[in-house]
Amino acid sequence: MEDILHIQDLTVKFDGFKAVDHVNTAVRQGEIHFFIGPNGAGKTTLLDAICGRVKPAVGHIIFNGSVDLTNYAEDQIVNIGIGRKFQVPSVFAGLTVYDNMELAAVKKRSLTASIFHKATQEQVELIDHILHTIGLDEKRGQLSAALSHGEKQWLEIGMLLAQQPRLMLLDEPVAGMGRRETEKTGELLKNIAVDCTVVVVEHDMQFVRDYATKVTVLHEGAILDEGSVYDVQNNPKVIDVYLGRGGEQDA
Ligand SMILES: Nc1ncnc2c1ncn2[C@@H]1O[C@H](COP(=O)(O)OP(=O)(O)OP(=O)(O)O)[C@@H](O)[C@H]1O
């Protein structure tokens, strides 16, 4: 499999403080690639740099072999094919599940433009397919406000899928979920990864063990280790700064 993302010498500074410090890594197409590490390690900032929310002081982020994302604004990066989900769900509570999906599928440049555009037949079929994938087919007519926490997260993942991204960035997608919802989310990610590479920031180590195909450990903005779950969780340095301190419990 080819690399879909090449992060080269990436450094992000806030008032001189290096939140991400000369990071070099790659994300392979079709992987579920987890970034883990203690609070303040730079995980969210790394996702922010990929999706264009923050601009790096140094370095490049090459998508799909040739597109340097650091040259583009956040909304352009969405159109390039990268979807980002934040920790707190941002679905429209007063709209039904289907209407949220339709809004995401027909998304033009502004919300007003989206509201006045109905989905095409092709988009309706895509929405049906996604609702089935995220397990909300039978709740399509229900107001989003009435969904459980887990269902809201799945709807938001569905809304990202409606934009047909090639890379999806998820920040702590299972935070606040019970074990059953967490497992359903893991199975959903496996399903998604067939067509769309998934990058996840996560503290839930059971979830990481069950679903990661690759793990990068960050500490103080730099890469501490990288490899399979087995390799990183047996690395004494990783145990010392993160796993051995029970750091994985504080989401
Ligand atoms: N906008 C900002 N301005 C100033 N400092 C920031 C900003 N965003 C993040 N930081 C700092 O950068 C460092 C990395 O933060 P980041 O949120 O990326 O860590 P993280 O690994 O995602 O942590 P957590 O697991 O707690 O979410 C922290 O020291 C944080 O305080």
List all distinct small molecules, including ions and cofactors, that are bound in this structure.
adenosine-5'-triphosphate
Tell me how many strands there are.
10
Please state the overall shape, judged from the principal axes of the Cα atoms: globular
Strand content: 25-35%
The domain count comes to 2
Identify the CATH class of the largest domain: Alpha Beta
Tell me the name of the CATH homologous superfamily of the largest domain.
P-loop containing nucleotide triphosphate hydrolases
Protein name: Urea ABC transporter ATP-binding protein
InterPro entries: AAA+_ATPase, ABC_AA/LPS_Transport, ABC_transporter-like_ATP-bd, ABC_transptr_urea_ATP-bd_UrtD, P-loop_NTPase
GO molecular function: ATP binding; ATP hydrolysis activity
Organism: Syntrophobotulus glycolicus (strain DSM 8271 / FlGlyR)
Helices and strands in order, then pairings?
Elements: E1 3-14, E2 17-28, E3 32-36, H1 43-50, E4 58-63, E5 67-68, H2 74-80, E6 82-85, H3 97-105, H4 111-115, H5 121-133, H6 149-161, E7 167-171, H7 179-192, E8 197-201, H8 205-211, E9 214-219, E10 222-227, H9 229-233, H10 236-241
Helix pairs in contact: 3-5, 3-6
Adenosine-5'-triphosphate binds at residues 14, 19, 37, 39-45.
Domain ABC transporter: 5-245
GO molecular function, one term: ATP hydrolysis activity
Organism: Syntrophobotulus glycolicus (strain DSM 8271 / FlGlyR)
